[in-house]
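Please fill in the sequence for the structure shown.

STRUCTURE ENCODING:
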């Protein structure tokens, strides 16, 4: 039986960063950038106004006070997306909107609220004149060329993970596609005579296949592309036939059939069609866990993680072993789950010197995080996992963690859901 870390290291040696591909910008959220992005022009490309107001020459208003406003002649107007037609000269101003290019001759923008524009309109005064009430500073409200991005500047480096902000930056320099590490394809097979496809009618002795769905959703959550192979009944040939359909994947995941029962065929599949590397990890839940490679026709060795069948075991093992493999393929360097220290409200018991992952709901009160077990911890009880936002870890050599002691918690949902 391997320790969790040993099993993980062994699994990870079978994965590496995938190749990159050019993708439409909106398909790249969460993917790793695989090119260096240099700006081909400055942003903003032209000096433009940071406010709705009047573009003018500072000299004209240098001595202005609210009691003694400067009256300027309004010689034109310019909106965002249009080029100014007039030039500002001494004694004149151009009405300007946020984002519009600064007219030649102007060196300052005074916002509407520091002028008498509204009084003029209300009192029916001539609108080809404007009273400026404050002197402000020279160049006030003028956004210089290249204030955000300078031409030829490196703005994004390879290896970063694209978030909405980076996707916005890429769009701002006009890119509609970008080179990213491709998403891994993950084939998922449920095994078991008892399984029915959700959507069909329940039958005596049968249950619906939930693992395919929770696992596929987890694959999507971490950036992979799930490929559902369906359900294989408990016999070796059917399992091999179904798995053959998934040998083009970057990773094969099966659920169930890895324990010591009469119908547990996954280890046999690995032995016959590839290589088995281990089948047991010192953890609870998810002790039975098979890992190996299957031989594809083209000679490729396809990594295969055989997860246990119990729905919580499958998901806990996915988080520990499949998630890091997916992230490594995606080119990520941080593979550990975000972990916090919380004060336990309740107890976690370790019966047999395995590492225990207990389902807890973490919340913050004052300065501390608190972790409350979410109910029955049987590996078949999926609803108590659905009430949890973290997995509290009891190390293998600790027999019990008591109420009030601190505990490490791997966060499943992080971080906004923990604030209470
Ligand atoms: P096994 O690993 O085949 O012994 O299965 C362990 C438990 O998990 C059994 O109670 C199975 O019925 C259950 N199980 C196996 N596969 C699934 C699945 N795809 N969805 C939900 N439960 C499952
Ligand atoms: Mg079974």
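FILLED IN BY: designer on duty
SEQUENCE:
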């Amino acid at each position: 039986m391997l320790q969790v870390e040993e099993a993980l290291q062994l699994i990870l040696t079978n994965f590496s960063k995938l190749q990159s591909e050019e993708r439409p910008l909106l398909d790249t959220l969460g993917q790793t950038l695989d090119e260096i992005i240099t700006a081909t022009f400055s942003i903003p490309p032209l000096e433009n106004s940071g406010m709705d107001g009047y573009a003018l020459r500072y000299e004209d208003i240098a001595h202005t006070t609210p009691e003694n406003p400067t009256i300027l002649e309004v010689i034109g107007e310019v909106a965002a997306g249009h080029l100014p037609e007039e030039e500002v000269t001494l004694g004149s101003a151009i009405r300007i909107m946020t984002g519009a290019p600064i007219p030649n001759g102007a060196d300052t923008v005074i916002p509407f609220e520091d002028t008498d524009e509204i009084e003029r309109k209300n009192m029916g005064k001539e609108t080809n004149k404007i009273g400026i009430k404050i002197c402000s500073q020279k160049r006030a409200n003028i956004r210089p060329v290249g204030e955000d991005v300078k031409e030829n500047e490196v703005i994004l480096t390879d290896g970063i993970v694209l978030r909405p902000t980076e996707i916005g930056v890429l769009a701002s320099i006009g890119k509609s596609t970008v080179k990213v590490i491709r998403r891994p394809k993950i084939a998922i097979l449920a095994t078991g005579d008892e399984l029915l496809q959700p959507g069909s009618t329940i039958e005596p002795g049968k249950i619906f296949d939930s693992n395919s769905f929770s696992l596929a959703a987890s694959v999507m959550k971490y950036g992979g592309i799930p490929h559902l192979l369906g359900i294989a009944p408990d016999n070796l040939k059917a399992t091999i036939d179904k798995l053959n359909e998934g040998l083009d994947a970057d990773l094969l995941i099966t659920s169930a059939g890895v324990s010591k029962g009469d119908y547990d065929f996954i280890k046999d599949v690995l032995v016959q069609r590839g290589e088995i590397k281990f089948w047991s990890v010192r953890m609870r839940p998810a002790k039975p866990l098979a890992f190996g490679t299957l031989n594809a026709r083209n000679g490729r060795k396809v990594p295969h993680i055989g997860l246990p069948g119990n729905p919580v075991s499958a998901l806990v093992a996915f988080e520990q072993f499949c998630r890091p493999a997916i992230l490594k393929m995606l080119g990520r360097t941080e593979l550990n789950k975000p972990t916090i220290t919380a004060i336990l409200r309740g107890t976690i018991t370790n019966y047999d010197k395995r590492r225990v992952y207990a389902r807890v709901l973490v919340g913050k009160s004052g300065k501390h995080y608190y972790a409350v077990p979410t109910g029955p911890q049987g590996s078949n009880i999926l609803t108590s996992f659905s009430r949890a936002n973290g997995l509290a870890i009891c190390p293998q050599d600790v027999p019990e963690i008591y109420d009030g002691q601190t505990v490490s918690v791997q966060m499943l949902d992080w971080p906004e859901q923990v604030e209470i």
